[in-house]
Each structure stands twice: as structure tokens, then as C-alpha cells.
Amino acid sequence: MYNYAIRFERDDTPGLAVFCRDLPQFHSYGDNEQHALSEAVDGIETTLSIYVDERRSIPAASEPETGELVVHLPAVTVAKIVLWNEMMARDMRKADLCRLLGLAQTQGDRLVDFRHTSKMEAMETALAALGKQLVVSVEST
User: Of the CATH numbers 3.90.1690, 3.40.50, 3.30.70, 3.30.160, which one belongs to the domain with range 4-71?
Assistant: First the structure.
């Protein structure tokens, strides 16, 4: 659902530019494919922060097209996306989440801050307060 497809583009300069159809604000760069893939996760998380700043829902990932690679986001990032999108569906603000969970503003802000790592237990508690349950599965690569 949130494994975004990216594509590489080469131009006259060394390295690779990275783009994502589902997140048009996302642009990243890498010296080579491996570096570009590792930078893509950070770039996607930074882009997701733009959606939070603009109070917009985060789009689901579409199926990859020929020539695209898929970026698998960390589980905590996916949990934050689900939490944020549920908040948007309910027209909730961060302050509303803090009141619901009995958290200080700083703690509540971190739950939807993609540049801050949150504990999975905190994410599960927040999702449960909104009637959601986190389910984790493991697949072969």
C-alpha cells in the first residue's frame, strides 16, 4: 500500500536523479543505484513531511511500471502514514491527537513527524485510539 515505485534518470552529470510518480514533490539523487535507493527512503520520508505540513492526505502507492524499482519503507513510517491519513479522514489536528492520547504537544507531534523515529508501541497506542490495529507480516525478498 505504501511501497512507492521510483525511477532513475541519468543526465549529463554523474549519478542518478530519482523520481516518484505518486509523490511529485519527491526528488532525490544518488551516486549509483544502491546509493540512490538508500537515499530514496530519506527523501520519501522528507516528502511525506510536506504532506503533514500542508495538512494533506498521503497518497497510496500505485503499482510499479516497467523500469521502476519499489522502495519498501520502514514499518514505523507506514504506521505514521496510516495514523496521519486517519487523522485527515477525521479532520483531526495534532492537538486533537494529543488531547485524545493525553500527551504533551511535543510527544504528539513526533507521532506524525517522519523525520523522527517513534517507538512502535506508541504508534500502536495512537492507532488503537483511532480504532485501528497495526498488523505486521513478513515476506521473503
Answer: 3.30.160
